[in-house]
Amino acid sequence: MAMYCLSIHRPSGYNPSISEDPAMGLAIDALNDEMVAAGVRVFVGGLHSAAHAKSISLQANGQLQVSEGPYLNTTEHVGGFWVLQVANLEEAIAWGRKAAVACRAPVEVRQFH
């Protein structure tokens, strides 16, 4: 069995309390229940807005600098993710397709080393 991360991508400034209707919440809950019943879900977590992120970088002088905001200046950020243990990439992609439908958002599927 291999482990995969399914990342949900949201636009900057995404606010779930405004953008997610009850039907979407029910779809995500149903997907989580399906993953648990299939025995593939290892972990799931939603993330606060990237605006609340702190970034830590190593400076040339060896010091660490903590900055406000996300590390990457992009228009989309990871809003949440699942860690799944599945047989292969095809199965991970199948779950990723379901996640994209439930979350109404792009999903990235990546295998752990």
Automatic annotation (TrEMBL):
InterPro entries: Dimeric_a/b-barrel (IPR011008), YCII (IPR005545)
Domain YCII-related, first and last residues per copy: 2-100
Pfam families: YCII
UniProt-listed SUPFAM superfamilies: Dimeric alpha+beta barrel (SSF54909)
Gene3D superfamilies attached to this UniProt entry: Dimeric alpha+beta barrel (3.30.70.1060)
Record field: transmembrane: none
Similarity remark: Belongs to the YciI family.
Name of protein: Uncharacterized protein conserved in bacteria
Organism of origin: Iodobacter fluviatilis
